[in-house]
What we know:
This protein is an all-alpha fold. The protein has helices at residues 3-29, 45-53. It is built from 2 helices and no strands. It is elongated and about 45 Å long. Residues 27-60 are annotated as: Disordered.
Amino acid sequence: MPAATVGKAFELLIPVVLTVLSRRAANRRSAGASPGTPGASGAGVGDVLGDLLGGGRRKP
């Protein structure tokens, strides 16, 4: 794959990933938490990456 094609793919993919992540975050926040307070889910960067890569959440 040429570098320009890879660059264009990332250029198109980033807004999609950000939209998906923001919708997931909004869904988690709307699950009973009041606005401005952190959610009780404790989702960290590793949890979000696990969701994206299909690994799911870590077990405590």
